[in-house]
Each structure stands twice: as C-alpha cells, then as structure tokens.
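Limitations

Structures in this collection are predictions, not experimental determinations, and the ligand pose is part of the prediction. Treat each record accordingly. The example that follows, with 2'-monophosphoadenosine-5'-diphosphate as the small molecule, is included so readers can see exactly what is and is not provided: the inputs are given verbatim, and the output is the predicted complex.
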Amino acid sequence: MAEASKKAFVTGHPIRHSRSPKIHGHWLAKHGIDGSYQAIDVAPQDFAEFLATLQANGYRGGNVTIPHKETAFALVDRRDEAAEEIGAVNTLWFEDGTLWGGNTDGHGFAANLDDHAPGWASNGPAVVLGAGGASRAVIHALKERGVADIRIVNRTLARAQELRDRFGAGVSAHGMAATNELLADAGLLVNTTALGMQGDETLTANPALLPDHAIVNDIVYVPLETPLLAAARARKLKTVDGLGMLLNQAVPGFERWFGVRPQVTAELRALIVADLVPKL
Ligand code: ATR
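Predicted complex:
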C-alpha cells in the first residue's frame, strides 16, 4: 500500500489571515513532497476535541496560533524546553503516539537576527518593549543566546515584573517612563507590542536615543517597515523587520512533519511580501 499523504495544519480563531499555508505550501512544492498544510479555524470550545482527534484524522502535527497557544500548552502530553520556558505552544507533533508541544517563536526571532544582523547577541544590553506572549518568546531566545542584560519595558509594570521573576538573572523590569534612559547604552531594541501595526503611528521608544551601533528589530511585519523601523533607519541604525521571524519559526515544524529541513530564501520572502497587502 502506498504511504498516506503527509498532513499538517495551522489552527487559530480566526485563521484566514495566516500566511503559514503559503510558507509551507511553497516548501512542499519545492521539495516535491506528497503532503498538505491546511488552515483550520477552531473555536476555543472545540479545541480540546480537535487535539484529541488529530491522530485519528491522519495529521502528523501542525501549528497553533492565537487564541490556542496557552490551551495547547496545557493539553499536550509532553513539552519541549522552549515551550516550558515560554509557557505557550506553537508547534505540535507526534512521537510514538505521544502528542508533543514545542515553541519555535524564540528560534524564529534569533534566526531572523542571525540572518540580518550577525553578532547581534554580543552587541550590548537589550531593551524589549512589551510583556505579553511574544515578549516571552523573545526573552527566552535572548537568554539562550547569552544576552546578559535584558530590560523589559511595559505600560503595565506588573506584567514586566512577572516576566522578570519568570526568567530570573539578567532580566529587569521597567515602566515606560524609564525608556529613554534604558536606550542610551542599549545594543538591541526589540518591539513585541502591536503598536506600530498598520495604521498606528504611535512610537513608544525613540531610536534617536540609541547609540550608533544599536540594532532595532520589530516583530510586527504588517507593515514591513513599521514607524519604529522607519525612525531607526532615518537615524542610520541597523534595522531588521519581523517577517524573517515568521518565516524562520516555520522551519522546525516543517522538518518534523515532512522530514526535510527547509530554507528561508529570498524567493520565499518575496512570495510572502507580495501577500502582505491587508486581507479583508
Ligand atoms: P502578544 O501575545 O502578541 O505579545 P499580549 O499578550 O496581548 O500580546 O501583549 C501585548 C503587549 O502590547 C503588552 O505588553 C501590552 O502592554 P500591557 O501589558 O500594558 O497591556 C502592549 N500594548 C498593547 N497596547 C498598548 C498600548 N496602547 N500602549 C502600550 N503598550 C501596549
């Protein structure tokens, strides 16, 4: 009997904005794999049932996005180290019938900077704007890559303090009022908040206050050049947009489900950039 076609998915609610099917579809075609990667909208009340029937429905695994990342974390049989540290799961796969949950967002963040700003991890203190789920993935990656001074800045100080307590040594928590001072000797500024997304011109940190060698990264990728990145570019700082994080976070999942480690290429990036016009 021929081997069944390999099936994977991305689930969220809503899910129609997801670019993941385009990314994985590109790699499936490129490698000539008999497989599929499908977007599946699952409402929160149906998510547990969805997970429980995955294997019976022939899935090798898939991606999980908002609002299911924390629920997936709670429901999987086993979790990898990154998922444990971040407290959320974005990638699911089976090993000998056991449902594993991993988190590749931190990997995507670090790989994007490796691609576009080599040496970033030894460039000095990092200032991270925001203290939500995305921030946890970024801080995990910064710690893993040895950044010794990580400064979380958040509108709600208590949330920054929770992350400081969670990640421990080398991580400090600050309210917005401290931002200017924290930027003066920073080597990396990362925005993890939704501020600066399409149509939002608000800037919470001024790149003009950063030293000349600083790198600025926004994990928001719609628009590709956020107001923060535009201001950093005007200041002649090295900038890295957020699209590479999305592309790189997809790599480990594809390898698990389909058995080939795919490449993040200029061709793939161009394909997704062409798709970035807002979907209504
Ligand atoms: P995600 O999982 O995408 O990180 P989240 O958990 O909702 O999303 O976190 C959103 C982050 O953006 C938080 O740090 C939030 O600040 P608060 O913790 O104070 O809510 C930040 N954020 C959202 N809107 C903001 C605004 N208008 N001004 C400043 N920070 C904002």
